[in-house]
């Protein structure tokens, strides 16, 4: 197994009122030239988890960080008008938290972050600030929301 140091949370950046079935997500990523879906897990608005890529395989979701990470995406991230928003349903929130907790137990060295937190720290102050975000993905502060899980040490 490869070494996992990051659990990266994404949104699909699609309008939350337009369904994106796992098969379509897979097809879109293949059309982009990926060898299958770039994320390892996909959580649809109903809260179901869809395994998309074997976690032993390197993903295609966070440039420069794929080798040591697992990518998890929730369906949505844009409001019906197409504006970036935290569109997670209660079911998605619950599933996402549970999945991260489980993965963290398997990979106790892994830190949880959002895709936007992997943007370059251009002013080198050690903080990835909103002005430095290359993307808004996943449209909420994943590092902060799941800080309690990242802080848990293995017993
Ligand atoms: Zn992303």
TrEMBL record:
SUPFAM superfamilies: N-acetylmuramoyl-L-alanine amidase-like
Gene3D superfamilies the record matches: Peptidoglycan recognition protein-like
Top-level taxon in the UniProt lineage: Bacteria
InterPro entries: Amidase/PGRP_sf, Amidase_domain, EF_Hand_1_Ca_BS, PGRP
N-acetylmuramoyl-L-alanine amidase domain boundaries: 2-119
Protein known as: N-acetylmuramoyl-L-alanine amidase
């Amino acid at each position: 197994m490869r070494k996992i140091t990051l659990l990266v949370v994404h949104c699909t950046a699609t309008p939350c009122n337009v369904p994106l079935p796992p098969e379509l997500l897979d097809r879109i990523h293949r059309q982009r030239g990926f060898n299958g879906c770039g994320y390892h897990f996909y959580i649809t608005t109903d809260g179901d988890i869809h395994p998309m890529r074997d976690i032993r395989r390197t993903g295609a979701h966070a440039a420069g960080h794929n080798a040591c990470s697992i990518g998890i995406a929730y369906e949505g991230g844009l409001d019906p008008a197409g504006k970036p928003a935290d569109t997670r349903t209660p079911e998605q929130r619950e599933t996402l938290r549970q999945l991260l907790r489980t993965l963290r137990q398997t990979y106790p060295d892994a830190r949880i972050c959002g895709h936007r937190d992997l943007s370059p720290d251009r002013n080198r102050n050690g903080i990835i600030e909103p002005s430095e975000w290359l993307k808004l993905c996943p449209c909420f502060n994943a590092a902060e929301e799941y800080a309690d899980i990242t802080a848990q040490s293995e017993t």
